[in-house]
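Changelog-linked ticket: iron/sulfur cluster example.
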Amino acid sequence: MTPLVDPFGRAITYIRVSVTDRCDFRCAYCMSEDMTFLPKPDLLSLEELDRLCSAFVRLGTRKIRVTGGEPLVRRGIMTLFRSLSRHVASGALDELTVTTNGSQLHRFARELADCGVRRVNVSLDTLDPRKFKEITRWGDFAQVMKGIDAAAAAGLKVKINAVALKGFNDHEAPDLVAWAHRCGHDLTFIEVMPLGEVQAARFDQYLPLDELRAALSRRYTLTPSPYASGGPARYFDVAETGGRLGFITPLTHNFCESCNRVRVTCTGTLYMCLGQDDAADLRAPLRRSESDDPLEETIRAAIARKPKGHDFLIERERSHASTGRHMSVTGG
Ligand SMILES: C[S@@+](CC[C@H](N)C(=O)[O-])C[C@H]1O[C@@H](n2cnc3c(N)ncnc32)[C@H](O)[C@@H]1O
Ligand code: SF4
């Protein structure tokens, strides 16, 4: 079967699948407190999600990241990991992984490892329990810490993702680096992106990572690292800790040239680019036929329209969202 290649010659080998738009947290930059979630029948069932992912695997996908909303709050989610693990076992997939807020990791870390998951991304913006409550609104810091420890104990490699927020966690950044590296975790800072309307003004939250890196350079010796995770992060080795530090800068540096990924929402909408609105409905072909042919045709036609890149912009005059979708819809 011919693998998926877009009009700009980029092979599409990585899908991020959001399995739910719901979450047990309400992070201030991601959701408003009174979110309206999708009606359950609109969501793909776990069996449909498996069919969809397996179609992508047949079309050359080598890496699947399960995300959300909070993926580990979806009922029965381990059934999906269990069934997708066959593609890891067969060698068709190089990697099956998950991005989580960590709240359920203490329950599922071992089972994830059993399903062939080797690495997990855990989002954590602060080590201060009071600030953690402030930013996640509903999160329990101790439970997340327990989850991170459980993941490490189960042999999972943990990468911490922290959204850099001006005046919130910028002063704490050196301590986050020290903590993560002491525990043997990678750490990546992410610039806040203008996705979906939330209650706080974006411009107030936005911190260019060049500024954060300059501040970190006063405490640490950062050397550009040749390491590449296949994602958009640029890495630096930190001499003092022996650890690795990543920066994801969608706003200050465009990383679209090497984009190898697409995203699927929990309703089966395929977004060819995180920052653009063009999409393809995969749920209809999934539900229309027991054969996967219509589904594969729809995927191919969509990849043929993958745009060259996004055009996020945060300006003073224009602090509204650049796309109406929240990150919890498209999946982080
Ligand atoms: C939408 S979450 C989904 C997975 C899981 N609930 C979690 O928090 O890891 C994925 C990632 O997106 C990040 N995120 C959410 N909204 C964002 C925004 N507006 N800008 C940048 N990153 C954002 C989160 O911090 C998280 O690391
Ligand atoms: S960032 Fe993740 S944990 Fe926070 S509200 Fe969004 S989906 Fe939930």
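Closing comment: Example verified and attached. Confidence is low (pLDDT under 50) at residues 313-320. The pocket of iron/sulfur cluster (ligand 2) is lined by residues 23, 25-27, 30-31, 68-70, 101, 123, 328 (CB under 6 Å).
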